[in-house]
Amino acid sequence: MEQEKMSPLRARMMEDMRIRGMGDKAQKSHIRAIKDFAKFLGRSPDAATSDDLRAYQLHMTDTGVTPSTFNTRIVALRFFFGITCGREDMKRFMQFKTKPKKLPMVFSVQEVSDLLMATPGPGLKYRAALSISYGAGLRASEVCNLKISDIDSNRMLIHVDQGKGGKDRKVMLSPGLLGLLREFWKEARPEGWLFPGKPKINPISSRQLNRAFTSAKHMAGISKPATLHTLRHSFATHLLEANTDVRVIQVLLGHAKLTTTAQYTHVATKTIKDTVSPYEMLAKLQDQTLRRSLE
C-alpha cells in the first residue's frame, strides 16, 4: 500500500528535477534523502508536519550524521516540499548545519611532477588524463568525459561540456600539455572519447582514474592524505602563487561564487611568504623615532 502511494509522488519529484535540468547524480542524491526521511516517518513524506521535520533533524544530529550529509538531505527536503508538494512554508522548519572549515590539501610543484612521472602504464593514457586534471584544473568527471573534439589546438583551449551544474566552459591548454596529448594520440589513436574505457564506446570511469592516481601517489612516495581532487586544488593554488587574478581562476575552475575560489588564498604559502607585514612599516617608524630621541 505504501509503495503504491509513494510511486506517483516519487515520479512527480523526478519530473520536477528533470524540468529544472538537475543532473543524474543530484537526482539520485535527492531521492535517497527523501527515502531516508520516509523510512524515519514510517509513512508517505508528503504528509509530514513541522514537528516531523524537527524530530528528523534531531534524529540526524543524535545519530552522528555528518554536516555534509545533513545539509544534503535538507536541500533535498526543501526541494521536495517547496517544489513537488507546493508547501513552501515547510522550509521555515529546516536548518542547515555549519560545517567545520578545512583548508584544501595541496601538492607542491615538485610533488605534482613526481606523481605524474610515476603514473602507471601501459602507455601515456593515465599520465595524460592526470596531467589534464592538474594542467587545466578539471574535475575527475570532466576529464573522463572529454572528447577529442574538445581539444582546440588552434585557440589553445579545452572545451568542458556540461561540467558541474550542467555548465559549459573553456579552460587553458598549455603548450606542454598539448605536446603530451599529441604523444598520447599518436600512441593510442583514440576515436570519439579522448580517454576511452572498456568497451571503447564508453569513456574511462572516475573509478579507473582514481585508481591510477592512488597508484601514482604511492609510487611517488607521497604520504599526504590527498585525493585526485588535490590536483585541481593544486592547479588553483599554484596559479594564485604566480599572481594570477583570483577572478580569472574562478572562471577557469567554473566556480559560481568568488568566495569558493577565495579559499585558495589561505593555502597559497608563497603568496603569504612574499607579502610584507605592516609591522615592517611600524619598525621603520620606531627606528626613526629612536634616532630623533638620540639627536
Descriptive keywords:
295 residues, mainly alpha, three-stranded antiparallel β-sheet, 14 helices, flat, disordered N terminus
Provide structural commentary.
It is a single chain. This protein has a 3-stranded antiparallel sheet. Mean pLDDT is 88; it is low at 1-6. By secondary structure, the chain is mostly helical. The chain is built from 14 helices and 3 strands.
Topology:
Layout: H1 2-19, H2 24-41, H3 50-62, H4 67-84, H5 109-117, H6 125-135, H7 140-144, E1 151-152, E2 157-160, E3 169-172, H8 175-188, H9 206-219, H10 229-241, H11 246-253, H12 258-262, H13 269-274, H14 278-294
Antiparallel strand pairs: 1-2, 2-3
Helix pairs in contact: 2-4, 5-9, 6-8, 6-10
First-residue to last-residue Cα separation: 96 Å
Average pLDDT metric: 88
Number of extended strands: 3
Q: What would you report as the Rg, rounded to the nearest angstrom?
A: 25 Å
The largest sheet is: 3 strands, antiparallel
Total count of helical runs of at least 4 residues: 14
Helix fraction bin: 55-70%
What pattern of helices and strands is seen along the backbone? Answer: HHHHHHHEEEHHHHHHH
Strand content: under 5%
* Cross-sheet strand order for the largest sheet: 1-2-3
Question: Structural class of the secondary elements?
Answer: mainly alpha
Unreliable spans:
1-6
- Shape estimate: flat
Please provide a brief summary of the model.
It contains 14 helices and 3 strands. A 3-stranded antiparallel beta sheet has the order 1-2-3. The radius of gyration is 25 Å and the shape is flat.
